[in-house]
Amino acid sequence: MKYDGRNYQELDAKLQGRCRESRKIGNHTYAQRRNRYSKEGVIAILLHNTDILSFYPNGDIKVNTGGWHTVTTRARMNDYLPRPYTVSGYGRGRTMLYNGNGWDNPLSAVDDSVLIKADGSTEGGGNALDVIAEVKREKLEAVRPRNRARYWINKVREGKPSPKLTVATILEEENQTVRLAMMRVFGFERFILDSGAKVIDQKADYELLELPLDRWNVLRALKMKCSTTGAVYINQVPPHCHEVPSALDWMFDTKDYLGQVTQQT
Predict the structure, then answer these.
(1) For residue 233, is it within any domain?
(2) What's the domain range around 158?
């Protein structure tokens, strides 16, 4: 049954008789009295273990997410908030409180809780304009690397070199997707050779090179030199390859590539 209490008086009228202290009003949702031995006499809307709304006799209403900025939490709030008040998600992990349908002019940000005073003013919560500006910045920061990666990928497709691109600028790039696209434009073999990568293992005409990219990632590549022509080839291998044999086995999908080649020669 849909519960239609929208203020303290209506909730108080519903909590009578056997259901004077608590009444189920929805899935995992209850109307319950708080502070029954005090003059304040708060009535709360409880969702799971969180009082998402608290109604006071003086007309104040406390809106509280308890840190649960979920679709269900906001839906329950909208079920029992008196109109014209509504809440809605804004950005990732944010909840906004509105007075009417003016989506461009939220009343307050519900960081965890905000008090709607009887006169329509709010107390607590976050500044709505600050949150809007912060969400916009977050969106721009998320889009910027994607656009930059697309720029470099297009250069690869068009076969256009970039004379201003250097090993140093590539290594300074923090975004891995953008960095990889820049390497492709610069030329992977040229990048490895010019970067001064460290030799961590050597067998015959093979060298396993390592280049730290940042605090968490390293680039490993196998350098192969043809003994007949003197040509040098560079192939990237996974970071788990610590020796030349394991890098060769990964490349050629064998258990002992170097041993097989030695036997054949």
Answers:
(1) yes
(2) 127-186
Are residue 134 and residue 122 in the same domain, yes or no?
A: no
Residues in the chain with pLDDT < 70?
Answer: 1-6, 36-40, 101-105, 254-265
Choosing from 163, 186, 209, the residue where a domain stops is: 186
CA distances from 217 to 149, 200, 212, 243 (A): 19, 16, 6, 18
pLDDT at 102: 60
Record the tokens describing residue 36, joined without a space.
């029954």
Angle at 167 between CA 166 and CA 172, to 5 degrees: 100
pLDDT given for residue 259 in this prediction: 53
Q: Domain boundary residue among 168, 186, 204?
A: 186
User: Cβ distance 193 to 187 under 8 Å?
Assistant: no
Residue 2 lies in a domain: no
Alpha carbon distance 71, 74 (integer Å)? 5
**pLDDT for residue 157:** 78
Per-residue pLDDT, 216: 80
So what's the pLDDT on residue 84? 85
Residues 59 and 160 in one domain: no
Coarse DSSP helix, strand, coil percentages of the chain, rounded to the nearest 5 percent: 35, 30, 35
Residues in the chain: 265
| The model's pTM | 0.55
Q: Where are the alpha helices (DSSP H) in 36-85?
A: 71-80
Output DSSP code: residue 10: H
Partners of 64 in the beta sheet? 113
pLDDT value of position 104: 65
Domain count, the chain: 3
Residue 54 lies in a domain: yes
Q: Are 235 and 242 in contact (CB under 8 A)?
A: no
Q: Are residues 173 and 261 in the same domain?
A: no
Domain for residue 1, yes or no? no
